[in-house]
Design brief:
This protein is α+β, with helices and mostly antiparallel strands. It contains 14 helices and 19 strands. It has a seven-stranded mixed sheet. The chain has a six-stranded mixed sheet with strand order 11-12-13-14-17-15.
């Protein structure tokens, strides 16, 4: 995943004066050539004369090539010196035209899209980081927080209308049975394969891997190509690909405020917790269809587990039926021997949540204990020594906001009261897809989504009243108050490519735990779903 930015010593366009000289020389050569061809049809010219003339023209062309190289070299130096003079001179940046700004951004490897205000902001951020010995695009490798991106499927999905099907293609994430899983019946047909085929840079690399679920199909029947992304990439490890684009490192917002910066996990995550400090690492991911993700060759949950070394993984929108759970639990990687799953019974293949842990919890509970809320498999709660952990998938208000009233008047208050009841005995952590972009900083286009599910005034107020005002803390926003970081991008308009997203996934904790949070982070480089994973490291 690491991106090697275009070299800082790249060239601008050839200056007009020098370009004119080159063009005149080229026209002169073409003119000489056409004269020679014209005269040969009417005048007999000796071969000796032609050879001499051709040698002269060849010499002239070589001279032009040398001239071009010289101009490019000079302009490289000029562009480098020019951008250095802009550091600290915001007035010059503001005075530049959009075309000049885009040319300069391309010369240093920055995406050159957006209105003038966005371009100026991105350049200022780049220059500021360059001054500190960093770059907003090319930065140092941090093995503890970076994963090679995995390319998402080219399937269409509605904006969180809860109808598309993607899933968790864990190469090996073992989750064996522990106490308290919900009843399971018939087994479904397990998809998957032991051989995958990745097409990278116009060549196919066949890699052998053990997928999450075994299959009876012939491996040749399940070979399929996985797009290597717009900018291509190279295979690195099993089931992972390096993408040459990190759109989340450039500020993407239609109405950015002064001081906002894009979230970059390479530079904004703190150092790992010391070995002698007791801690717990939690992760959460809306997989948008677990079985579909398991079929995706480009994803390796084993490498995700090895890279992040999480203790607990919470899943939302698994879209499993009860008959599928036992089959999946028997085919996951070693070490995570406690798993708890709840599935929708009112609408099959819909919603669904889970908690997977290598630490055995003290107790497990499914749902809120309210019949009207518990038929869609939206909550799993486990109790550990120091806190309760809830994996939640909050109902989407839906197309036409048909469930908005239910969401803000029934579900949110009931969940809030449930959390406060748990808090009477120990602190509470709520994680998952809460289906609300709380503030304007949490959504790319706030003005265009005032009446969209997930950003209505009613949902945002409910989020504030039922959670934040009752003593729960949004850990990411507490750690990164002016940082634009998204966790959801719709497939329909290619949201990931331009980082036009929403922050819908959270870790919300009791106030008594807030000062124990070491890191609350986002992993935007992990594809495979329309959401990306989020994480929380807690010092105990």
């Amino acid at each position: 995943m690491p991106v090697n930015c275009a070299s800082f010593y790249t060239t601008f366009a050839v200056p007009q004066r020098k370009l004119t000289v080159v063009v005149l020389n080229i026209l002169k050569v073409r003119g000489m050539g056409s004269e020679r061809l014209g005269s040969s049809s009417s005048i007999s010219v000796s071969s000796t004369f032609r050879q001499k003339k051709d040698k002269k023209e060849l010499g002239l062309m070589e001279s032009i090539d040398d001239s071009r190289k010289s101009i490019a070299k000079e302009d490289t130096v000029e562009s480098h010196e020019g951008i250095q003079t802009l550091r600290g001179d915001s007035n010059r940046l503001e005075a530049m035209t959009v075309q000049e700004l885009r040319t300069m951004m391309r010369s240093v490897g920055l995406p050159a899209k957006g209105i003038k205000r966005d371009l100026v902001s991105a350049l200022k951020h780049f220059l500021a980081n360059k001054k500190d010995g960093q770059s907003s695009v090319a930065v140092e490798e941090d093995s503890s927080s970076v994963m090679e991106p995995i390319h998402p499927r080219n399937t269409q999905s509605k904006r969180k209308a809860e109808s598309s099907s993607t899933g968790n293609n864990s190469e090996n994430l073992n989750i064996s049975e522990a106490s308290g899983a919900q009843p399971k019946k018939n087994r479904g047909t397990p998809p998957g394969s032991e051989i995958t085929s990745l097409e990278i840079n116009s060549r196919t690399v066949v890699t052998k891997q053990k997928l999450l679920v075994k299959t009876d199909k012939n491996p040749s029947q399940v070979k399929r190509k996985v797009s290597s992304g717009k900018d291509g990439g190279t295979a690195k490890g099993v089931g992972l690909a390096v993408n040459s684009n990190e759109p989340w490192t450039v500020l993407a917002h239609k109405k950015p405020q002064h001081g906002w910066v894009p979230y970059n996990p390479r530079t904004m995550r703190p150092p790992p917790v010391a070995d002698d400090t007791k801690s717990m690492k939690l992760m959460s991911w809306n997989v948008n269809g677990l079985r579909a993700l398991m079929k995706l060759e480009g994803f390796s949950a084993l490498q995700l587990a090895q890279r992040e070394n999480f203790d607990v993984l919470c899943l939302q929108e698994t879209k499993l039926q009860e008959k599928d759970v036992e089959d999946i639990k028997q085919r996951l990687i070693d070490g995570y021997d406690n798993s708890f799953w709840t599935c929708s019974v009112s609408k099959l293949g819909y919603s669904g949540t889970a908690i997977i842990s290598r630490i055995k919890p003290l107790s497990v509970k499914y749902g809120l204990g309210i019949q009207d809320h518990d038929s869609e498999g939206r909550l799993v709660t486990v109790e550990f020594d120091a806190f309760y952990l809830i994996s939640g998938y909050v109902p989407n208000s839906g197309d036409g906001l048909r469930r908005l009233s239910y969401r803000v008047k029934e579900w949110d208050p009931s969940l809030s009261n449930y959390m406060k009841d748990l808090e009477k005995s120990k602190p509470v952590i709520l994680t998952g897809d809460l289906n609300c972009a709380h503030q304007e900083i949490d959504i790319y286009d706030p003005a265009g989504n005032r009446r969209s599910a997930g950003f209505t005034a009613e949902e945002r107020e409910s989020f504030e009243v039922n959670f934040l005002s009752r003593g729960f803390v949004d850990t990411f926003r507490q750690q990164h108050p002016g940082v634009v970081g998204y966790t959801y991008w719709g497939y329909r308009h290619g949201g990931r490519v331009g980082n036009k997203g929403w922050r819908l996934d959270y870790f919300i904790v009791s106030e008594s735990l807030a000062d124990k949070v070491h890191d609350s982070y986002i992993l935007p480089d992990v594809n495979g779903s329309d959401h990306c994973p989020i994480g929380l490291i807690l010092k105990l």
